[in-house]
Fold small monomeric GTPase.
Amino acid sequence: MATSESSGNVVDTSPKPQSSERSVTVLEKQTQRRIFKIIVIGDSNVGKTCLTYRFCCGKFPDKTEATIGVDFRERIVDVDGEQLKLQLWDTAGQERFRKSMVQHYYRNVHAVVFVYDVTKMSSFESMPGWIEECDRHNLNKEIPRIFVGNKCDVTDKIAINTNLAQKFADSHNMPLFETSAKDESKANHVEAIFMTLAHKLKNAKPMMPVHMYGTGYSRSNDVVNIHDSPEKRGLQRAESGDGTREGCSC
Ligand SMILES: Nc1nc2c(ncn2[C@@H]2O[C@H](COP(=O)(O)OP(=O)(O)OP(=O)(O)O)[C@@H](O)[C@H]2O)c(=O)[nH]1
């Protein structure tokens, strides 16, 4: 079962404290929760924003624009009774929107999701380049990596067959998932992809806890300051949605 932070579905069986005590208790739980940073990379337009939005916000976005720099979504998931916070870093596929932020993506990463578009051969052919970029930034080779072919709903335009994708995934020791962020009937599948990752991460070393200040975050070992608005940070956010999820653009 997965819960969103904003829905406040934190499991708490202890006697109910007074309101001031309760806020301290909630704060303690939040600061102790293990946090995992997952970067989502691949060519522009393959659907990275839509996949992360589907997982964190539970729907396909009405409208997206090219990501500038990095966008950030998060969701709390329950794995075998432990609540883990997954931070999904939705990175820009376009080189001109990546330059200024690229070194920050690769800091303290716990998992990587490589995304290609099953209807676009060039996005598949770019994958070795994305893997090389990870190597260039000294990403630990042991961290979980998954390979996702998106846009499977466009059945009449499939350009990369499963065998080819599977061979590539096998040669890089990655599980392959073919899915669609758009197709409602594949929503559980997108869920399963990230939950598979969450299970793998459960035994991994977490990031430092985040310190919560009001509605924003600060992190001592990272320059990204979530206190600032996306605009101030020079980031592009997916449009639409009800704006109720913490750290998320939905
Ligand atoms: N048919 C279909 N279209 C999709 C799917 N996922 C995304 N799209 C569309 O593909 C386009 C690009 O989606 P994005 O999620 O913005 O792509 P991105 O990889 O984040 O792109 P950058 O931000 O430029 O790196 C949009 O028009 C989406 O509506 C999918 O599963 N099926």
